[in-house]
TrEMBL record:
InterPro entries for this protein: AAA+_ATPase, ABC_transporter-like_ATP-bd, ABC_transporter-like_CS, P-loop_NTPase
Protein name: ABC transporter ATP-binding protein
Keywords from the named record: ATP-binding, Nucleotide-binding
Domain of life: Bacteria
Pfam families: ABC_tran (PF00005)
GO molecular function, one term: ATP binding
SMART domains for this protein: AAA
Alphabetical list of PANTHER family matching this protein: ABC TRANSPORTER G FAMILY MEMBER 20 ISOFORM X1, ATP-BINDING CASSETTE, SUB-FAMILY H, MEMBER 1
Alphabetized PROSITE patterns for the sequence: ABC_TRANSPORTER_1, ABC_TRANSPORTER_2
């Protein structure tokens, strides 16, 4: 899958601007970004649901939007909000989707049996979709999206209303699909989910600001990470925010994660001096490894953002 100069305008709003991507098959590729960053718009253009304003898209060897209709037979799409029929049973929902794809009776029966077993829906088969839990609805939505055995699966924030246990099980099922040679594109705002992706694109205000594997993004972060342990983290954080070489400060317990400009000399020493010079105790101040959250903040940080209250 390849995009070149992919752009989408809605009137005067530039929702996606010149996004270039190359995504290999049989991988999980994640889109990460703030709300309104263009993640869903990118996905909808790539699966042929939206026509780009500019740019080229090739998906599974097909040009989009020119061959979007043929592509849809090879694509599964799972939306953020549960969008199946809540007044129908699981069996009826699966049968309806099979009909949408014009499956004959034998194929329909076989595929419904297969996805029902694979996604552990047997116990709820004759229950209405509106009467089952969020995790069960999620498994039903995935079963419907995979019923016609697509080569490519698009997931738009699929676990936004699901508890951690079901989220973890859901991701294990995604890796099973990758083993079967399915390519998966997923948008998410959960950092732990993003870390599970083979590669990521971070979008901000419609632009691609970083991309690569989670490990590569951590190595290439445009900031130095300093871990500060102090007995007055709120005061220390406000002090550090007054320095223009400090890009961000986040508190985790009594420890601060400080993002410092990458070219600043001796980041840990400078952070420690600021805090000590204010008469605050410093138990530890040392360089740290970048987390994916650090990468995300560094890539999408609003320069106008002020210090915390």
């Amino acid at each position: 899958m390849v995009t070149r100069g992919l752009s989408k305008d809605f009137g005067d709003v530039h929702a996606v601007v010149d996004v270039d991507l190359a995504i290999p098959r049989a991988r999980i590729f994640g889109f990460l970004g703030p709300n309104g960053s263009g993640k869903t718009t990118c996905i909808r253009m790539m699966c042929g649901l939206l026509t780009p304003t500019r740019g080229d898209i090739s998906v599974l060897g097909m040009k989009v939007p020119e061959q979007a209709e043929a592509l849809r037979r090879k694509v599964g799409y799972m939306t953020q909000k549960f969008s199946l029929y809540t007044d129908l049973t699981i069996a009826e929902n699966l049968d309806f989707i099979a009909g949408v794809y014009n499956m004959n009776r034998a194929t329909r029966r076989q595929r419904i049996e297969e996805v029902t077993e694979r996604y552990r829906l047997e116990s709820y088969f004759n229950k209405r979709a509106g009467a089952i839990s969020g995790g069960q609805q999620q498994r039903l939505a995935l079963a419907c999206a995979m019923l016609h055995e697509p080569e490519l699966l698009f997931l738009d924030e699929p676990t936004s209303a699901v508890d951690p246990e079901n989220r973890r099980a859901f991701w294990e099922s995604l890796f099973d699909l990758v083993e079967d040679n399915t390519t998966i594109l997923v948008s998410t705002h959960y950092m732990d989910e993003a870390e599970r992706c083979h590669a990521l694109a971070i979008l901000d205000r419609g632009r691609l600001v970083a991309h690569g594997s989670p490990a590569q993004l951590g190595r290439d972060i445009d900031a130095a990470i300093v871990l500060l342990d102090t007995d007055q983290p709120r005061r220390a954080g406000k002090l550090l925010h007054t320095h223009d070489w400090v890009r961000s400060v986040a508190q985790v317990g009594n420890r601060l994660r400080v993002l410092v400009q990458r070219d600043h000399p001796d980041p840990a020493g400078s952070v420690g001096r600021v805090v000590r010079d204010a008469g605050l105790a410093v138990r530890r101040c040392e360089p740290g490894e970048a987390s994916l959250e650090d990468v995300f903040v560094a890539a999408t940080l609003d320069p106008a953002a002020g210090a915390p209250e």
